Every structure is written in C-alpha cells, then in structure tokens.
Amino acid sequence: MELNKFIDELFKRGKEEGFSDMEVYYIDSDSFEVNIYNQEVDKYNVNKNKGLSLRAIYEGRIGYAYTEKFDEEDIEFLIKNAKNNALETQTDVIPEFYSGGQYRELEMDINVDIDTKKKIEDAMYMERRAKEYDSRIDSVNYCLIDTGKGRRKIVNTRGLNLEEESGVSVAYIAVVAKDKDDVKSGSSFKVTSNYNNIDFEKLVKEACDEAINSLGAESIPSGKYKVILRRDAAATLLATFSSIFSGDAVQKGFSLLKGKIGKKIASDKITILDDPFLKDAPSSCFFDDEGVETYTKEVIKDGVLKTYLYDIKSAKKDGVKSTGNGFKASYKSPVVVSPTNMYIVKGTLDYEEAIKRQERAIIITSLQGLHSGANPVSGDFSLAAEGYLVENGSITKPVEQITIAGNFYKLLEDVEEVLSDFELALPSGMGSYGSPSIIIKELNVSGK
C-alpha cells in the first residue's frame, strides 16, 4: 500500500479503536559499504531498509508498535500491538504529541550518489598509496568507504507532517607501521555529507604519519602532567560524558548538574554548543524524532551552564519546552534525549604554536577503555592512553602504556586554553561530537 494511504487508514482505524492521538515515524534508507584488502574487495554490502513505528495514546497511556510491511493486515497488527502495549505501560507524565512550530530551513550539501566503481577505485587508491608512503608501513588493516542516504517522515493526528532527507559519506583507513619488532598503528577518517569533500591523499598521510611517529613509544614516569588533549581524543571524551547534560539524566540523579543552571561549572574558555545546523555534519536536522523544531543552543557559555537538553517528556517534568533533542536509535526504539551535533567551540591559538609554548606536557592522541573506565554519573575516569611527550616546546618522543585519571567536571574547570583545530569525531551511536584540542592544567598520569 502507498505510504500516505497506509497512514490515513491507520489513523482511521486507530480512532475507531479508541486511540486519542497517534503518531507515525517512518524511515527508509540506502547504504553502501566496501572494504579493500590487498587490492581486492574484501567486504561489499548494499542494503535497503524501511520501517514504520506507531506511537498511540490509549486511556492516557502510550503504546508502541512497528512494522516493515505496509499491507492491510499490518494496520490491524499495529493497532492491536500498540493497544496491548499501552495497557501494560506505566508513566508518571501524561503523554502528548507535538502539533508543530516554526521550522528553520536546513542547508545541506548532500552528494552521496557516487558511481560504485569510483568508490571501489578510491578505496583501492587509499590502500595503494598507504603501502607506497613509507617502507615502514607494513600493512593496511582497514580501507573502508561507506555511503548512505535516507528519508524520515513524522505524521500525527495533531496536524504534524514533516519530512527530511539526509546523506553521509565516510572514508576510513587504518595502517600498521613496523620497525624490527616494534609495531604501531595509525588511522584517519573523514565524515561528510558531500563525497567530493573527501581528500584521500590527506587521509593516507595522516594515518601513516600517526603510525610511523608512534614507533619507539615508551612509558614515562608517573606524576601530574599538563595535558594537551588532541581534538579527536577531546571529542571522544565529550561524547562519553555528554549524558550529564540531559534533562532526563538530571531528573533521574544520573548527573551532578542538578540545580546548576546559571552557575559556573567550567573554565571561561569553554563554550559547548548543540548545533543541529552545523554544515557538513551527519546529525544536522531541522526537527527531532518527536517533530519538535531544533535550534542551536549554548549548553555552556564562557563556563556557565545555560540549559539542559530535553525531549517532550523530560521538558514537561521540569515545566519547560522541549529543546528539540528527542531522538530514536532506530524506528523500533523509544525516544530518548540525545544531542544533535555537540561540540566545544574552537579558540584562536594554533595547535603547533600551542606546542611551542609548553615547557613540559603530554599530548594525548587516543584513549582506550571508555566503556569500563569512565563513569558518566560521577564524572570519574581512568583510561589507557597514548600520545607524545613535549619538552621545551618540541615533541621529543612518542608515549604509550600510560593511564590518565581524573574527573570530567574538574577537567572542564581546569581547561587553560582551547585551540583552533576543530574536528568532528567518527560517528558512533546517536548524535555527533566534536572538539578542538584543549590544554588542561594537569592530570594524574600513571606510567613506569
């Protein structure tokens, strides 16, 4: 059945069954992935997906159901399952759907419809150039190109009818450098809405340089060190602790930011935005998955906490309006609070110049153990790390087998400088995260 007709029939039957309000969330997507190994296609996937979920209010409670088919019998399936689910649901907030607002146009340069042959050739080119780059490049573990485009649509019985298209291209390369028995890895990636923005030569250089420059790494004595958290590591750490800004997490006691709106919680250097209109970012959108209009908001401005992020339910609990941050991991998933594009606003100091100004510091380039070594509630973290030692304004040696420990809330307070080298991290899960490199007054480092 044609989609709009299916939705009309679904709403008609739902009203007959006693639903007071209904909302449909629909997605369809196409994705392509190729991975090259030794100049041959090692992995090749082409997928088409579509699905529809129904949220329906029955006797003051909300029920859910979903389907991947759009036939007459699927309407009855959705009605039955949504009603049964509603009868089993308990909620402390009367559910409601959004009727619409003032929506800002999203300017996106989407171009992912690239010939398959070209994408395979580009991936092969990356692998070939990496192996030619330096004799110490021993192998290329991953050489991946991934493109996808999609459409999402939200329609409800309160008059909401929204639709949006999206597209993303990802290029990723991971290499291994070897010098006798010393083996090190390096990687680089690009995420963009326009495939033509990918500079494959730059990705190869970044990955190979990272691996080669890490050869000869060793641990350093334990102690307190000034730390330059490189942009990719900083973005990863922000993503790990981003839930502390969720209004839902604050209400449930999973964040220490309760009652901190309008108060200083970070260094004057720190401004954090949630920006759904960031250009060339994978999570940009003009409405969230509840149909609420999105807007750019300062979560922290000059160190002061300005707002939490809300979906409709958590906003209602606090007596405020949703910030347009209600999202689903998939059409089958419930709505949760999530950022769009959350990032630390860049400063003006150049990365290389910042290094020259350091008498003694550690540059942290990667963090491991984020799932087990970081506590988003308390803010505490203890993470394995790698990077470089800086002495008298120069990088003197690569560093490994160290652990950095601290507290994210304290780290925000101890930021001395925010640099100008902004970058979005590789997407994982919901939302996108970015940061420039940041200089932290000191962190505990455990080494040899």
TrEMBL record:
<dbReference type="Pfam" id="PF19290">
    <property type="entry name" value="PmbA_TldD_2nd"/>
</dbReference>
<dbReference type="InterPro" id="IPR047657">
    <property type="entry name" value="PmbA"/>
</dbReference>
<dbReference type="InterPro" id="IPR045570">
    <property type="entry name" value="Metalloprtase-TldD/E_cen_dom"/>
</dbReference>
<feature type="domain" description="Metalloprotease TldD/E N-terminal">
    <location>
        <begin position="23"/>
        <end position="86"/>
    </location>
</feature>
<dbReference type="Pfam" id="PF01523">
    <property type="entry name" value="PmbA_TldD_1st"/>
</dbReference>
<dbReference type="GO" id="GO:0008237">
    <property type="term" value="F:metallopeptidase activity"/>
</dbReference>
<dbReference type="InterPro" id="IPR045569">
    <property type="entry name" value="Metalloprtase-TldD/E_C"/>
</dbReference>
<dbReference type="InterPro" id="IPR002510">
    <property type="entry name" value="Metalloprtase-TldD/E_N"/>
</dbReference>
<feature type="domain" description="Metalloprotease TldD/E C-terminal">
    <location>
        <begin position="222"/>
        <end position="447"/>
    </location>
</feature>
<dbReference type="GO" id="GO:0006508">
    <property type="term" value="P:proteolysis"/>
</dbReference>
<protein>
    <submittedName>
        <fullName>TldE protein, part of TldE/TldD proteolytic complex</fullName>
    </submittedName>
</protein>
<dbReference type="InterPro" id="IPR035068">
    <property type="entry name" value="TldD/PmbA_N"/>
</dbReference>
<dbReference type="Pfam" id="PF19289">
    <property type="entry name" value="PmbA_TldD_3rd"/>
</dbReference>
<dbReference type="GO" id="GO:0005829">
    <property type="term" value="C:cytosol"/>
</dbReference>
<dbReference type="InterPro" id="IPR036059">
    <property type="entry name" value="TldD/PmbA_sf"/>
</dbReference>
<comment type="similarity">
    <text>Belongs to the peptidase U62 family.</text>
</comment>
<feature type="domain" description="Metalloprotease TldD/E central">
    <location>
        <begin position="113"/>
        <end position="215"/>
    </location>
</feature>
